[in-house]
Every structure is written in structure tokens, then in C-alpha cells.
Write a structure and sequence with these properties.
Elements (H helix, E strand, L loop, with lengths): L15 H18 L3 H7 L4 H9 L18 H14 L1 H12 L1 H8 L2 H12 L5 E4 L15 E5 L2 E12 L6 E7 L8 E7 L5 E3 L13 E12 L3 E2 L5 H37 L1 E2 L2 E2 L4 H29 L5 H26 L10 H9 L8 H17 L2
Parallel strand pairs: 1-4
Antiparallel strand pairs: 2-3, 3-7, 4-5, 5-8, 6-7, 9-10
Helix pairs in contact: 1-4, 4-5, 4-8, 4-9, 5-6, 5-8, 6-7, 6-8, 8-9, 8-10, 8-11, 9-10, 10-11, 10-12
Length: 392
């Protein structure tokens, strides 16, 4: 495999163990997840069995050290595995991405050893599903304006308020919740671990979404939910800092989810173009079709390289926030455009639920919205670029 300049230390080649892991995950996804994706899309059934299978492969705690129950994979390998999951079913992939990128990373990086023992281990082994509770009905991109209140009561905190658009709401056992413990703004927010079944914790009905039907999304209501001080992650007032830092990891995951969706759409479109005939020719012989496929491949490959660079930087312990945002921006836009063009190549069949590309088209759109909209990614990227020039 070609390697770029040695001084960078970054190689485009995978080691044999990395290739074996990714191939094993690909085989599992094609055998156990992809065949049921359309069924889950129609029924909205939460994919518990498939998640258990991925847990057996170590993918619900992919990058968590073995000490805490995880597989201890590097971030590049995990990213490629997530692409395989997404190519099979994006609903399953987002559950895996949220679990690995947000609750687990928050507890691993900022939690105590007791929190890691009690909460991280069950998450990493797949015994528990985790949820990330930041967004509120009136606080989306403006996360610093969240209103869910946590009031001190002895050695406990009492949480009151509502979170919105929570992946695995009602299905998770461990909720990482950002709540206001102080005054207005970012420094008044702290992070808490809330267990499923806590008195006062309840859930709205699953949202009826455009796509990702098998990934349950709900509001989460906190009615005087009591949480011990021992369940605060990090220090008081550090919650938003912890959440935003963890979102950098989550954005690599969403980029790989988007790439998996896009790749699956391209593969279906290319296969169809090789089989379908019009005007006495295969569709692939028409430039209007072949050029679309060429641009699909170019956009997927370029976005993947940026996403893997972000994952590699994370493995090296280097800053990767800008690259993670670039990857999410490019990959999510590519997913929407590639799936739209795939529908176009299949024509009327592309609009039919008998073919998977219409589902992929619906699943793709959300990747431009959650874990930071495309507009927020552009803010993050531009600020990082300007900061480089201001510091010179």
C-alpha cells in the first residue's frame, strides 16, 4: 500500500489484524443486519438482537480499554467497522456511534474509577445501552441555553426538565444528562449519570421520523429525579465542556455512518446500472449515469480520507476537532447527494420500497443535522482556521 511522507507517520495501509477485524464485522453485518434492515425500517423495531451480536464482537465498547470491559481497538479500525454497520443498517449504526462516541467517552475521560466500574463496564460489554441527553425543546444548536435544572439537596441533586431527540430514549439503561446547576451560560452546566428506572424519569412516545426508524428517539422527562453527588461526571460547571469535547469523537462516528449510507447507495446504483437496459444499452454505458457514479465514488473516497485522518489524529493523542467537523460536514453532504442520485439512477424503482435506495435517502438526511448541524460544523471549522491565523 502507498504511504504518504514518512515524517507524517500516517499510512494509507491497514495492518493485517485491522483488515481481519473489519472483514469479520463486514461478514457479520451482511449476514445478520442487512437482511433485516427493510423489515426494521417498516416496523420500527429496536434492533436488540443485532446489538447483542455487535456486543459479542466488542463493538459496543470498541475503543474502551480492556481494563474497563472494552475491545481496546484503535479509532481508525473502529471507524471502518462503523462504516460497515451503517452500510448494512444506519439505524443500528447510530446506536453504536452514540454509545461509543458520547456516554462511554465521557465516563472514560472525565469519570471516576468508581463510575467506570459501575457504568462504563456494562456499557462497553454491551450489557447496557447508553444515551446522551443534551438537546432540549428550546435548546438545540444553542446548547448553552439549556434549561433542565439540577438543584442541590444535601448530598444529592434533583433534576427537573425535559430533553428532546434522545437516541435510545426508553431503551437505554444509562443516561448522561447535562443540567443547569448554576447561572446562565455554558459555565452553569454540569453532567450527571442517571440510571433507567430512577423515580421521576419518564419518556415520551417514539418520534415518527423521516428515517432511522429502528433507532428509537424520544423526549426524556425528569420530574424531580434524585441523583447522588457521586454520579456527577467531572466538576460542577464542567458539563458543557465535557459534552462538546465528546461531540468531537461523536462527529467522526456520524461521518462514518454517513459514508456507510452513501457507499451502500452507490453499490446499489452501480449494480443496477450494470443490469438495467434502456434504448438497447446498459445504463452504465450512458454518460449521464456513469458520471453520477464517478462523482459518488470521488465524494465518498475524499470524505473517508478526512474522517480517517481525524480518527488517526485521535489515536495519536493530537487535536482532531477541526478534522472531525470537516469529516462530518463533507460526509453528511455526500450522503444526501449520493443517495439522491442513486434514487435518480434507479428511476421509478428508486422511489419504490422494494429497493433499498429510498430508505438510504431518508436515512441520510439526519446526518446533516444531529451531533451538530452542517451550519454548526462550518462555524467550528472557520473558528479553527481563523485561530490559526490570529496566533501567527
Amino acid at each position: 500500500m502507498t504511504t504518504i511522507q514518512p515524517e507524517t507517520g500516517m499510512s494509507f495501509g491497514l495492518k493485517s489484524d485491522q483488515r481481519l477485524i473489519v472483514q469479520h464485522v463486514r461478514d457479520y453485518c451482511r449476514a445478520e443486519i442487512a437482511p433485516r434492515a427493510a423489515e426494521f425500517d417498516r416496523s420500527g423495531e429496536y434492533p436488540r438482537e443485532q446489538l447483542r451480536g455487535l456486543a459479542d464482537l466488542g463493538l459496543l465498547g470498541a475503543t474502551v480499554p480492556e481494563q474497563w470491559g472494552g475491545a481496546g481497538l484503535d479509532n481508525v479500525t473502529y471507524a471502518l467497522c462503523l462504516e460497515e454497520i451503517a452500510a448494512a443498517d444506519a439505524s443500528v449504526a447510530v446506536v453504536v456511534s452514540v454509545q461509543n462516541g458520547l456516554p462511554e467517552q465521557m465516563i472514560l475521560r472525565y469519570g471516576t474509577d468508581d463510575q467506570r466500574e459501575r457504568y462504563l463496564k456494562p456499557l462497553a460489554t454491551g450489557q447496557h445501552i447508553g444515551a446522551f441527553c443534551l438537546t432540549e425543546p428550546e435548546a438545540g444548536s444553542d446548547a448553552a441555553s439549556l434549561r433542565l435544572k439540577a438543584g442541590r439537596d444535601g448530598d444529592s441533586w434533583v433534576l427537573d426538565g425535559t430533553k428532546a431527540w434522545i437516541t435510545s430514549g426508553g431503551q437505554a439503561q444509562t443516561y448522561l444528562v447535562m443540567a443547569r446547576t448554576g447561572g446562565p451560560g455554558a459555565r452553569g452546566i454540569s453532567c450527571f449519570i442517571v440510571e433507567d428506572g430512577a423515580p421521576g424519569l419518564s419518556f415520551g412516545k417514539p418520534e415518527e421520523k423521516m428515517g432511522l426508524h429502528a433507532s428509537q428517539t424520544t423526549t426524556v422527562h425528569f420530574g424531580s429525579v434524585r441523583v447522588p453527588q457521586a454520579n456527577m461526571v467531572g466538576g460542577e460547571g464542567e458539563g458543557l465542556i465535557i459534552a462538546l469535547a465528546s461531540l468531537d469523537s461523536g462527529r467522526i462516528g456520524i461521518a462514518m455512518q454517513a459514508l456507510g449510507i452513501a457507499r451502500a447507495a452507490m453499490e446499489h446504483a452501480a449494480r443496477y446500472a450494470c443490469e438495467r437496459e434502456q434504448f438497447g444499452q446498459k445504463l452504465r454505458e450512458f454518460e449521464g449515469v456513469s458520471f453520477k457514479v464517478a462523482r459518488m465514488a470521488a465524494r465518498i473516497e475524499s470524505a473517508r480520507l478526512v474522517a480517517l485522518k481525524a480518527a488517526w489524529l485521535k489515536d495519536q493523542g493530537q487535536p482532531f476537532g477541526k478534522e472531525a467537523s470537516i469529516a462530518k460536514l463533507l460526509a453528511s453532504e455526500a450522503a444526501v447527494d449520493v443517495t439522491r442520485d442513486a434514487v435518480q439512477i434507479l428511476g421509478g424503482n428508486g422511489y419504490s420500497r422494494d429497493y433499498p435506495v429510498e430508505r438510504l435517502y431518508r436515512d441520510a438526511k439526519i446526518t446533516e443535522i444531529y451531533e451538530g448541524t452542517s451550519e454548526i460544523q462550518q462555524l467550528v471549522i472557520s473558528r479553527a482556521v481563523f485561530a490559526e491565523y490570529v496566533s501567527r
